Amino acid sequence: MTLPVIASEAKQSRASGAALDCFVASLLAMTLVLGATFFVSISTGPAFAAGPADLISEFRAKNGEGKVVLDATLNAIAQQQAAGMAAKDVLDHDVVGNFNVRVAPSKAGSAAENIAYGYDSFPKTLGQWINSPGHRRNLLLKGASKVGVANAKSASGKTYWAMVIAGGYDKPKPKAKPPAKPAPKPAQAAAKDKAVKDKAASEKVAAKPKPAPKKTCTINLLGLCI
Question: N or C: lower Cβ tally within 10 Å for the chain?
Answer without folding.
Answer: N
